[in-house]
Amino acid sequence: MSDLLEVKNLKTGFQTENGFLPVVHGISFHVNQGEIVGLVGESGSGKSVTSLSIMRLFHDTRGKIAEGEILYKGENVLTFPEKKMTKYRGKELSMIFQEPMTALNPVLTIGKQMRETIMLHLGMSKKEAHQYAIEKLKSVGIQRAEQVMEDYPHQLSGGMRQRVIIAMQISCNPSLLIADEPTTALDVTIQAQILKLMEEIQQKTNMGILLITHDLGVVAEICDRVIVMYAGRIVEEASAVELFENPKHPYTKGLMESAPKIGSKKDRLNSITGTVPNPNNMPKGCKFAPRCPVAMAVCHEKEPELMGEGNHSARCWLLDEEVKKKEEMLNA
Ligand code: SF4
Ligand code: MG
């Protein structure tokens, strides 16, 4: 049971000339208050479609939510009238994107943009909102906040812009923050600073954070729990500690081997060979089978369900003792 966000059997995709093309295939997961949950996978795995669906920004593209529920504090946001959703966006659920430039209006000063958000959601006067914005900028480690209020987005560095976005997105004290690759566009040092900042904010505010990333290194830094996605499905879910100690899905293991390790001199990574399958042309059986180094005959025929005990589950036939035994006998 989750008190904050519960996604139930979410199925989304794109409307195309040839009909509906599913991209996310009935995923279910939750985020509790005070928890940082990592949603991990390569690009094309359905992570961003999932986050946009939660914010109900997905159908602005050609996307369509076909099935499922997105419960925020027990209410299905998919049934909200647009007016109510607009009110919730920013105030209850906030989102940070990878490229902060797209989230900022290039022709308005930071101050004007921040004041407007704050006035809209918190009903403050312009003067109060100005003061409040400066406080928020300082709270994300921007020393010369007064100056930054006068700046235009292009006058700031990438790291500074991402801090501004974070300040803006947390200014109305949302309960849930969705961060989609928030540090991907930044260099490694700044990346670490931004992650630390997000962790500090989470601890101070007790908000829930859904952190979307392709980088398991990022997950290891700050996440409590991890959901691994592949080809629009959840393929593994566990606490971060458990996942790193005992990964069960060959895809998760592959991601771990390709994640840069701190202090490692190796500059070329063992990335997983092959690519995420095209939604137009999904393999039969396990969607990872064409890339899986330990695929068995059954894998090419039948898709496994999520299996597991307690809070650790994975979608892999290797977890099914009977299937494994049968395969071993076949190969004996
Ligand atoms: Fe690999 Fe088979 Fe497991 Fe899929 S089900 S990940 S192909 S072993
Ligand atoms: Mg925490």
TrEMBL record:
<keyword id="KW-0472">Membrane</keyword>
<dbReference type="InterPro" id="IPR013563">
    <property type="entry name" value="Oligopep_ABC_C"/>
</dbReference>
<dbReference type="Pfam" id="PF00005">
    <property type="entry name" value="ABC_tran"/>
</dbReference>
<dbReference type="GO" id="GO:0015833">
    <property type="term" value="P:peptide transport"/>
</dbReference>
<keyword id="KW-0547">Nucleotide-binding</keyword>
<dbReference type="InterPro" id="IPR017871">
    <property type="entry name" value="ABC_transporter-like_CS"/>
</dbReference>
<keyword id="KW-0813">Transport</keyword>
<comment type="similarity">
    <text>Belongs to the ABC transporter superfamily.</text>
</comment>
<protein>
    <submittedName>
        <fullName>Peptide ABC transporter ATP-binding protein</fullName>
    </submittedName>
</protein>
<keyword id="KW-1003">Cell membrane</keyword>
<dbReference type="Pfam" id="PF08352">
    <property type="entry name" value="oligo_HPY"/>
</dbReference>
<dbReference type="InterPro" id="IPR027417">
    <property type="entry name" value="P-loop_NTPase"/>
</dbReference>
<feature type="domain" description="ABC transporter">
    <location>
        <begin position="5"/>
        <end position="256"/>
    </location>
</feature>
<dbReference type="InterPro" id="IPR003439">
    <property type="entry name" value="ABC_transporter-like_ATP-bd"/>
</dbReference>
<keyword id="KW-0067">ATP-binding</keyword>
<dbReference type="InterPro" id="IPR050388">
    <property type="entry name" value="ABC_Ni/Peptide_Import"/>
</dbReference>
<dbReference type="GO" id="GO:0016887">
    <property type="term" value="F:ATP hydrolysis activity"/>
</dbReference>
<dbReference type="GO" id="GO:0005524">
    <property type="term" value="F:ATP binding"/>
</dbReference>
<dbReference type="GO" id="GO:0005886">
    <property type="term" value="C:plasma membrane"/>
</dbReference>
<dbReference type="InterPro" id="IPR003593">
    <property type="entry name" value="AAA+_ATPase"/>
</dbReference>
